[in-house]
Amino acid sequence: MTPRTRLLGARFRAIRGSAPPPTGACCPGAPPACPVSTASRMVTVAPPQGTSCPTSCSLIRCPGMGGHDPPTPPSHLGVVLSKLSAAGKVKKIFAHCLDTINGGGIFAIGNVVQPKVKTTPLVPNMPHYNVNLKSIDVGGTALKLPSHMFDTGEKKGTIIDSGTTLTYLPEIVYKEIMLAVFAKHKDITFHNVQEFLCFQYVGRVDDDFPKITFHFENDLPLNVYPHDYFFENGDNLYCVGFQNGGLQSKDGKGMVLLGDLVLSNKLVVYDLENQVIGWIEYNCSSSIKIKDEQTGATYTVDAHNISSGRRFHWQKHLAVLLVTMVYSYLIIF
């Protein structure tokens, strides 16, 4: 029987656009050194000279990646992983599991040994979590897209980013997906709620709309269900969680940016040691097992339930999405 751990989390807000989080919203009175959990113990890591603990309240949020801004590297997490790895305490591996059913989820730093996760290579020499997208299916039928849509390079390619709420697609990809998703619902009338495309619908969207599958190198699929790419914004009002990247910043027009609405209810593992990333559909209210690199022992990391809601609740003005995340304090008991 493996030792148990208790996970203490903190709520954070994912702010759309480039607006900074409220001062002290999640890290009030942060000490000059940041407590970060590893597989078996709490470790205090001094932040870089001249900086403090992250006030964005997320170790994996990329500053500037909400809404319209170009991607920027996840600086705080990189610093934490580098320091812990240099000290021999952990490998450069972290994982998250965002629970949109019960709220909360799992965040852990270290080698995930259970469940096993299939991976795809990260694109070398790129500043973000770039991966090679091979094809896209809607309802089991492959979309006919120009081959250059799957190229990787500057200002093009596919990025996995849990710091971004929505999913942004090149205009041609966005239009093809939307046509396929609504092919059997030509009677639906759309209207805009701020920047979102919304529609009235009575019925179960999971029963009546198709699954979308993104296929990546090494035969790794990412299944996105209707409850992932639609979100409720009132009684029988659904909005689309995909955005037309052609209407966003110039730098993002040719990029596929997959945010946390499509990564939710999946365990996502970022293995920077082996330069791969992977995921598996998972019950994020359960637990995962992490290996302690110093002792070889295996520890269980439990989920932390923050919200009593069953789904994400979008505020009336859609300015702030309250999501739940784990800010990584592990206490052995």
Automatic annotation (TrEMBL):
GO terms for molecular function: aspartic-type endopeptidase activity. Residues 1-280 form the Peptidase A1 domain. It comes from the Eukaryota. InterPro entries: Aspartic_peptidase_A1, PEPTIDASE_A1, Peptidase_aspartic_dom_sf, TAXi_C. GO terms for biological process: proteolysis. It holds the Pfam family TAXi_C. PANTHER family: ASPARTYL PROTEASES, EUKARYOTIC ASPARTYL PROTEASE FAMILY PROTEIN. Belongs to the peptidase A1 family. This is Peptidase A1 domain-containing protein. It comes from Oryza glaberrima (African rice). The lineage of its organism: Eukaryota, Viridiplantae, Streptophyta, Embryophyta, Tracheophyta.
